[in-house]
Each structure stands twice: as structure tokens, then as C-alpha cells.
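User: Reviewer 2 asked us to show a designed sequence for the structure in our supplementary figure. I'm pasting the C-alpha cells here. Could you produce the per-position amino acids so we can include them in the response letter?
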């Protein structure tokens, strides 16, 4: 891991102090980094151990269909999360689709709009209508009060999302689901290895869905899983992800191909080996951002609750335009010019993307908190490819931008940016 960070720094570091507005790359200055600094660079773990695993896969000529690496990855994940069943899949979206189908969600299912589009698409793909509810102002997670308001006779379920790895209000959602007889699924794509009131995420609702995409805290290149304590549901999901095969030549259920490959599982096992290192690095990065950004007016870092054992995979700041005198989008544009590819996760919200935008053109009116937060959030680079020195430079730049917002805004309004 140390080598990954070293290589990254050698490639990217050009020390440029910004002292005047014209030093900003957007106005013609030299960019702060010579190559792009990304949000979501994959964590790699120990390269040699990964290559050894891959060599074994090649020697054994067993590449897929519930091979030894997948079985080990499922066992280690289930043990870590202290959950009975982990069914590994080819990605988190297919895991969501299969879980939705296995739970027999139909009609309408309530989801927050502030999530990655896959949460909504997985429903629509199963011809279930996603009904978008609002988020809580403080936590930015699904608001149980808003959920309750959206329930109709057609509602069959709720999907809660642990956005940016911070657990949503599981207790209230569980109460609502029980009261109305609804299925409860959690999209835990961001929350691998996190806890909720001392219990591992993965144990709540009817099932929880994980993503092991390259950008995730633990990755399998592409991958996902459903985790559940329900034996019957686990059995059904296992069949569904393998065409419904129950032994040779015997199909007993409609299914699809949701299997994880051996090479993916090898990467997942290597990620699991380094899990504590990933958390340590992520936490160090987050704390550095926290320390460096705390006194900068107009922005606020969204804090993790240390008691919930976060994985610190996302570092998110909110920009308050009223205080900053510069919009979030102009800040993003200015940082992109410096080769810092911050992201607006998850602008513009699922309700503002197709096909939902056309289906429910006025959905935004019912989502005031979501609309506000969507105009404020910026996701900053972190993970094992980002060094503390990189973070210091990014923070110096943010500080410079935030101290010169009026002049930057005026120049942008004047069309002075470099194209
Ligand atoms: N639910 C939630 C809440 C999710 O966030 C996701 C996935 C899912 C469900 C679905 O799970 P999967 O089916 O994906 O397993 C990225 C990911 O593609 C997506 O998986 C992830 N959420 C989402 C948060 O982020 P984009 O559209 O931002 O991807 P992209 O290509 O712009 O990459 C993001 C950044 O990562 C870039 O700055 C480049 C960097 N990157 C990316 C890849 C793939 C790398 O440095 N190396 C890489 O290999 O969606």
C-alpha cells in the first residue's frame, strides 16, 4: 500500500503556490496537479498476495461458478459482518435486483432520491416504481417521517440507503416496515464494515446489499453481495443468481447470472486482508481534512459519528452559497481545472434523472431537503492513493478559493475562464 501512495505522489506532485487569482488554472495558471487526482481510486492491498492468488486460479483452471475463492470470500465476509448468509454477486446492482425480486417487492417501493442511480434503477428494472422520499436535514439520510407520508395501498417495501457509509435511522424504518407490513431492504453499498449502535451493518431489515465496485472501500474490481439472516431468503437468492440451478441439469426456479468470478473474489480476499490498513488511512485522511477545513468560512465537512465505526470512505463537504458568495458548481469547476476531480455525489438526484424526471416532473417539490443538499455537496479525494501531502495541497487550494470567492465569481461572470 505504501508503494501505491508513493507512486501516486511521484506522478502527480507539482508544488505550485497560488498567491493571486490569475494563478488559478481556470484563469490560465498552471494546474496544481499534473495528473488528475480522483475521488474513488481503488484500494489495492498487497499486490504480491493478489498475484499469488491469481496464479493459483490460473493453475487450478477454476474461474467461476462458486469456486474456492468465492466461497472463502463469502465466509470471511459473513464472519466479519456476523451475519448468517453472504451471497456474492457480479455487482451491487444485480445484487439489488435479485434481492428486490426475491423479496417479491411489487407496485411501489419508497427510496431516497439522494443515492446512486442504481438504487432506483434496480427497482424500475424489476418493473417496481421507485417513490422518492426526502432526507433528514442533518444526517442527509432517508427521513422516516417522509417515508411514512409516501405510503399508499400500492407500497410493498422500503429501501434505506446508508449514504456515504453513515447508517440511516434503521430503528425507525424497522418500526414503520412492521407497522405497515412492508419489506425492508438496505442498500449498504457504502457501509461495508460499519456498525449501527454496536451491531455490524448487514444484519438489518430483510436483507442488505453490498457493493464491491472498484471505487468501494473493499473491492472485487466489480462485485456485490446480498447479506441476510433469513435462511429461506438466502436459499432463494442463491438459486436466483445461478439460473435457478439446484445441482446438475436441475433448474427449479427462474434465475439469472449474478455470479462473482474467482478473480474478483481473489481481489476481495486481498482487500479483506488489508481492511484495517484501509480504515487507518481513510481515517487519517478524513481527520486531516477535518482539521484543515474547520475554520474556512462557507464550507462544512460532513462528520462521521466515531461511535458507529465508520469506514471513512467518503469525505463530503457542504458549500453554503449564501456564506461563500460562490456556488458549489463554480467551486467544482475551479477545482477540476486544478486537476482535482471532486464529485457532486449524487447530483442531480434520482428524481431529476430519466426516466423518473419524465414520470414525476414535480417530485422535487416534495423533496426540499434533498434539493438543498444536492446543491451543496462535494466529494473530496481520499483512499489509499491519496497522501496527506496531497490533502494539504487540496486544502490550501480550497482555502485560497474560499478566501477569494467574490473575485472568482466576478471573473467567472465576466467570462474570463480558460476554455
Ligand atoms: N448503491 C449505491 C449507493 C452505490 O453507490 C452504488 C455504486 C450501487 C448501489 C451499485 O453498486 P455497483 O453495481 O456499482 O456495484 C461510481 C461507481 O461506478 C459506482 O459503482 C458507485 N456506486 C458510485 C458511487 O461511484 P461513477 O459514475 O461516479 O463512476 P466513475 O467512472 O465516474 O468513477 C468514479 C471515480 O473513481 C472517478 O473519479 C475515477 C475513479 N476510478 C474509477 C474506476 C472504475 C478509478 O480511479 N479507477 C477505477 O477503476 O460511479
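Assistant: Here is a per-position design you can include in the supplement:
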Amino acid at each position: 500500500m505504501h508503494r501505491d501512495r508513493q507512486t501516486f505522489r511521484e506522478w502527480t506532485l507539482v508544488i505550485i503556490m497560488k498567491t493571486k487569482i490569475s494563478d488559478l488554472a481556470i484563469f490560465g495558471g498552471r494546474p496544481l496537479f499534473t495528473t488528475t487526482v480522483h475521488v474513488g481510486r481503488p484500494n489495492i492491498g498487497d499486490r504480491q498476495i493478489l498475484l499469488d492468488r491469481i496464479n493459483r486460479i490460473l493453475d487450478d483452471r477454476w474461474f467461476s461458478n462458486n469456486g474456492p475463492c468465492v466461497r472463502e470470500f463469502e465466509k470471511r465476509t459473513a464472519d466479519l459482518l456476523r451475519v448468517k448468509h453472504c451471497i456474492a454477486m457480479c455487482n451491487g446492482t444485480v445484487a439489488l435486483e435479485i434481492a428486490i425480486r426475491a423479496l417479491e417487492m411489487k407496485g411501489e417501493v419508497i427510496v431516497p432520491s439522494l443515492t446512486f442511480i442504481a438504487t432506483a434503477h434496480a427497482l424500475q428494472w424489476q418493473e417496481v416504481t421507485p417513490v422518492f422520499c426526502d432526507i433528514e436535514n442533518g444526517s442527509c439520510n432517508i427521513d422516516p417521517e417522509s417515508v411514512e407520508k409516501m405510503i399508499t395501498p400500492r407500497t410493498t417495501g422500503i429501501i434505506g440507503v446508508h449514504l456515504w457509509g453513515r447508517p440511516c435511522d434503521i430503528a425507525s424504518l424497522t418500526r414503520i416496515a412492521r407497522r405497515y407490513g412492508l419489506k425492508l431492504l438496505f442498500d449498504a453499498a457504502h457501509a461495508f464494515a460499519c456498525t449501527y449502535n454496536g451491531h455490524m451493518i448487514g444484519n438489518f431489515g430483510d436483507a442488505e446489499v453490498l457493493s464491491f465496485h472498484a471505487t468501494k472501500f473493499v473491492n472485487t474490481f466489480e462485485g456485490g453481495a446480498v447479506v441476510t439472516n433469513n435462511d429461506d431468503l438466502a436459499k432463494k437468492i442463491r438459486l436466483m443468481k445461478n439460473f435457478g440451478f439446484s445441482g446438475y441439469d436441475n433448474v427449479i426456479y427462474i434465475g439469472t447470472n449474478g455470479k462473482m468470478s474467482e478473480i474478483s473474489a481473489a481481489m476481495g480476499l486481498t482487500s479483506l486482508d488489508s481492511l484495517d490498513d484501509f480504515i487507518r488511512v481513510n481515517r487519517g485522511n478524513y481527520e486531516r481534512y477535518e482539521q484543515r477545513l474547520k475554520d474556512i468560512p462557507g464550507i462544512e465537512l460532513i462528520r462521521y459519528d466515531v461511535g458507529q465505526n465508520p469506514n471513512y470512505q467518503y469525505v463530503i463537504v457542504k458549500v453554503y452559497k449564501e456564506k461563500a458568495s460562490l456556488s458549489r458548481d463554480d467551486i467544482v469547476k475551479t477545482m477540476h481545472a486544478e486537476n482535482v476531480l471532486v464529485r457532486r455525489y449524487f447530483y442531480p438526484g434520482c428524481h431529476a434523472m430519466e426516466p423518473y424526471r419524465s414520470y414525476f416532473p414535480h417530485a422535487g417539490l416534495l423533496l426540499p431537503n434533498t434539493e438543498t443538499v444536492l446543491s451543496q455537496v462535494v466529494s473530496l479525494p481520499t483512499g489509499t492513493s491519496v497522501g496527506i501531502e496531497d490533502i494539504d495541497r487540496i486544502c490550501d487550494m480550497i482555502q485560497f478559493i474560499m478566501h477569494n470567492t467574490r473575485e472568482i465569481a466576478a471573473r467567472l461572470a465576466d467570462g474570463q475562464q480558460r476554455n
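For the response letter, you might also mention the following. The longest helix spans residues 275-293. The mean pLDDT is 94.
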